[in-house]
Design goal:
Layout lengths: L1 H4 L2 H21 L1 E5 L1 H9 L4 E4 L23 E5 L3 H12 L4 E3 L14 H13 L3 E4 L14 H9 L3 E13 L7 E17 L7 H25 L2
Parallel strand pairs: 1-7, 2-5, 2-6, 3-4, 3-5
Antiparallel strand pairs: 6-7
Length: 233
Amino acid sequence: MKRLIRSPAAQRLLALLLTGYLKLALSTIRWRREGEEIAEAARNAGAGVIVCFWHGRIALSPALWPLDRKLELGEARALISLSPDGEFIARTMAWMGVPAIRGSSTKATDKAKPKGGAAAFREVLRWLKGGGGVAITPDGPRGPAERMAEGAPLLAKLSGAPVLLVGLACAPAIRLNSWDRAVLPKPFARGAIVWAGPFEAPAEADAEALERLRQDWQAELSRVTAEAEALLA
């Protein structure tokens, strides 16, 4: 069954169905937005921007690049893994208007099966330096949920791009029994978006400094996610 679901034809069909559902649901949500001026100020600086949200909120994230609003974060790309599940997500995000840059880190025990991490990292850097926006789920693609990996601070250091941390919430919503407790919006629900930042990683930051940033940003991203949830309580 898993092999059938992960076949190209099934992945395309599932992505098509999910895209149709998300377009309906997201267009009917009544959104509450907090701190949106933060995103506008970061973009007005003229550089690329890194936008981080937890993996479980991917289905809500197209609302960050709304086509009917003036907020402009630059043409968006999403960093998505090369896994079979990543293929499904990448198709959906592309049809929602956010094409993917594909790649993820390689496990230490899986060196014979590279996942395109280095090439994707270089492509993201080029995109940011060209002024584009990049969406990242810093706890993906394997988790643990809401634990930020070291990639986001390193990417910020090498690109010089500001980092925006975004809390996303929706109520009522469907919560999947997945490792990230993925949230699927329901049509005509209430939604909340909370922005924090912009944050920067100095070019001279060493490993210890990057680790402190990772911990600080992880805590802040969980905080704004909890704040978004509280706005809908």
